[in-house]
């Protein structure tokens, strides 16, 4: 029995667990009761221990704290080594990639056979026995001293057919209006009553006949539109004439005004018109450039 106790004591004293309990007795107090400690102390497994009083401060051994932190330090060391190794591998990979660069996959490898270099002739070239027949240079023809001037193109006289077409064009109201211009209403009289619109057309027709008779006196045809304003009494007499926009030529403006005055008296105002005077704006339309006739 004594031999067993002594052997157990030696085994326990050699074990790391018993050494840990011997270094830190406070852990044993938390795990075992005082009666269990006395029972172990009877066999002298532990040295005698005095129970601390309630007033004494509890002191934690530094070895206990170190043993608790040791697994954390080991894991931190392993993680640090792994991170350093990963960073080193990444740096090595980047340096190798920047040195070698991207390989080209479109390279074409082809064997090229070099031809033998040209060798100089062993014997110099000899001139032929016969002389070559050299043709004498042909003389160039002398340049002409004077260039022929083209004959002037004679103006062809107008044919009778062309004169007949022009006469037919200027004999109709449509042809006269296209070649010399014509009077019209502003906005084609869309805002006027039916009776006033009909009177307007009758008045403009008489003024156009007078204008076409005098338009041949102009040296130049009209270049732009002009606007005149007249005041007509009930009997058709023109009592006022005013120029609102010039046609661009003073001579044309005077001739237009003379044509309007010559057309007076105009047709009388319709009976359905209540006013004593009629204010009539007139627009003189210039002929198109295609149909302008120069006098």
3D architecture notes:
The protein has a 4-stranded antiparallel β-sheet with strand order 1-4-2-3. With 295 residues, the chain is α+β, with helices and mostly antiparallel strands. β2 and β3 form a beta hairpin. Among the domains are: 2-59, no CATH class; 66-98; 175-285, 2-Layer Sandwich (Fusion Protein Consisting Of Minor Coat Protein, Glycine Rich Linker, Tola, And A His Tag, Chain: A, Domain 2). It is rod-shaped. The model is unreliable at 1-6 (pLDDT under 50). It contains 9 helices and 4 strands. Helices cover 44% and strands 9% of the residues.
CATH architecture of the domain at 175-285: 2-Layer Sandwich
Unreliable spans are 1-6
Strand order of the largest sheet: 1-4-2-3
**Briefly, what CATH class of the domain at 175-285?**
Alpha Beta
Rg calc: 66 Å
Distance between the termini: 161 Å
Shape: rod-shaped
The amount of helix comes to 40-55%
What does the main sheet amount to?
4 strands, antiparallel
The CATH topology of the domain at 175-285 corresponds to: Fusion Protein Consisting Of Minor Coat Protein, Glycine Rich Linker, Tola, And A His Tag, Chain: A, Domain 2
β-sheet strand percentage: 5-15%
Can you tag this structure with a few keywords?
4 strands, rod-shaped, alpha+beta, 295 residues, four-stranded antiparallel beta sheet, disordered N terminus, Fusion Protein Consisting Of Minor Coat Protein, Glycine Rich Linker, Tola, And A His Tag, Chain: A, Domain 2
